[in-house]
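**User:** Everyone, produce a chain:

**Assistant:**
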Amino acid sequence: MLQYAVYSVISPEGCASILWKTSEKAQDAADAMGITAHRLKALGLVDKIVNEPVGGAHRDHKQMAAFLKRALNDAWRQLADLKVRELLDRRYERLQSYGRFTDTKADAA
């Protein structure tokens, strides 16, 4: 996922407009929705965050393409030697894990 991208069915501004009747609370909405690259990576929904050029991907297309090419090549190298069955099993396990709760608190013993 690109560094400054968000993943949602509604923009933070749209969500804020519905919840608080103002788009000025877009950052609050984005935080509540957990749609940023870093939040989604922490949840295990994103494998890697691809850095963007200063100012965002739209500011320097050539540099962004180079960053993305490097990230895709790295991912390919990690998967290239796996058998199809193993790739499918990994993908299935990953999809099945979405939404599972894991207690991260230390055992109180």
Remarks:
- The chain has one domain: 12-97.
- The chain has a mean pLDDT of 89.
